[in-house]
Design brief:
Blueprint: H1 2-23, H2 30-43, H3 53-61, H4 63-66, H5 68-76, H6 78-81, H7 85-126
Helix pairs in contact: 1-2
Length: about 130
């Protein structure tokens, strides 16, 4: 019963996100609006991540199931994309490489900054 109430809470957040997104004068994904609402609820302590742990674990354990409709849609629309498949694959590979490189450089930068601040703090503590 606990997981059902958690799913109902998440569904209400998703519905609220979709509703708010439909009111906006520009196109905006309802799912992103739902994440913003949930984030705000967490910040205000009106919702606690620990109370949603069971439904989160359920969704994470069954994540591959949620990609099935997208894959089926791509397969049913293959006639439309088959003429551009090479360009789509190139875009996917290039975006993968760029994302990987940006992530690697960001992690390296953060590690270097952390080391710099640690050394600075150690010098201050020894002085």
């Amino acid at each position: 019963m606990k997981i059902l109430s958690q799913i109902a809470f998440m569904l209400l957040i998703c519905l609220a996100g979709q509703y708010i997104a439909s009111l906006l004068p520009m196109p905006f994904p309802g799912s992103v609006m739902s994440m913003v609402i949930l984030f705000i609820l967490f910040l205000l302590n009106w919702a606690k991540p620990q109370k949603l742990s069971e439904v989160n674990d359920f969704f994470l354990n069954n994540m591959s199931f949620f990609f099935v409709p997208s894959a089926v849609s791509i397969l049913t629309q293959f006639e439309l994309i088959k003429n551009n498949i090479v360009q789509i694959l190139i875009i996917c590979v290039v975006s993968l490489i760029v994302t990987f490189a940006v992530t690697a450089y960001t992690v390296t930068l953060v590690i270097n900054l952390q080391n710099k601040f640690r050394k600075k703090r150690q010098k201050e503590e020894t002085a």
